[in-house]
User: What shape does this take?
Amino acid sequence: MTRINTNVFSLVSTRNLNTNNNALSTSLERLSTGLRVNKGKDDPAGLIASERLRAEMAAINAAIDNAERADNMIAVAEGGLQEISSLLIELEGLVDRSANEAGLSAEELAANQLEVDTILETINRIATSTEFSGKKLLNGSLDYTTSSLPASGITDLRINSARLAEGSSKSVVIQVTGSAQAASLVYNGATTASSTTTIQVSGKYGTEQFTFGSSTNASAVVAAVQSAKSLTGVSARISGGNIVFNSTEFGSDAFVSVEALQGTFAVTGGSSATKDYGQDVEATVNGIKAITKGLNVSVRSASLNIDATLSAWVASRPNQTRTFTINGGGANFSIAPTQGVNAMASIGIQSVATGNLGSQGLGFLSSLGSGQANQLSEGKFETAQRIIREASSQVASLRGRLGAFQKNTLTSAMNSLKVTLENVTAAESAIRDTDFALETSRLTRAQILVNSSTTTLQQANAMPQNALALLR
Assistant: This one.
């Protein structure tokens, strides 16, 4: 080529040099930042996918942090409950020692009562002072709130967990489908036999023997049995001229046994000649068959976990219905990357103050304090012991629920989220991060091509000089 106005070879070399310089610049940028996608033009689709994965990673990390914080919070609550459990064991020991009335002076009994009062005060203090990051944990502030709870019919209600959509409430309907029954035996007669009669009455709590003279009136028999009902768990009453023996409690654990040890005292109406058992209530909760024991009704599902005690009047009448509404409350934790009701883990933490531990039918722990119905000087040691054991059972149950929540909900969620985070991070890295082995080979290639293009451009620019040879 001998044209000098247009140097096509120079244009070709310049274009290739620019292309190689751009490739070299891209390789240097990727190697210096460690990212394959630095700008949208590097990989538009990859950038969109990478940003979405980054958002998911941020949400997963937040969910892991939430679960870890929830685990720490539950651990603090469980620590407080552990101390309360130890105090309840000590309290039962005090009641048991105080029951040794003949061996204790009035001063010793008063000293024991002082210890009881101190333990009750300590339990209340733990209930009100156990907190995490300024939030009270055991004073009932993390319990669920309800409305429309019947004034009668449900004597004790504990909502363990309930999943509620944001700003919504849940209606709970308890329907009795099968009646609860106490054990019952009947003695047909207004008096005992014409000879001396000794009967043995047994129930859930123990056995007592009673001896009656010939032709003792039914009222005297009833009075004797009634005087020992706290020892046996069996009460008696007169109905239609007959003596009716009933267990003081309902359910399959309750029984009545009346057996003649001397003389004749035949009873009827039992599952055997001398014995009868009670029957547990049957019920549904929101259409789900409930777990029942005596008058107690429980349901365990993903959306609702409650324990309730029905009154004897309600539980003994099929088709009775009690309805209440859960409005909110509970300890709610967000432990999933996508928000919504399915991301929430919820658990109710009831108050463990002495006025809440126990039951309405039996009594509450606070009744053991000075001046209360079950203080030591009243001598109601059996009732006090039952209240303490009921309180211990409630605290142990709450500790178990919190432990299960930590292990099976929070820890499992954290383990799952960490695996998910690894996989999402790997996916985002495959899209966005630089493959250094590949990129260094591209850098070397680009460097060689830039050098080659520069040399070629130099030679192309020199080619028009050849036209001067024709002018000589």
Observations:
- The radius of gyration is 41 Å.
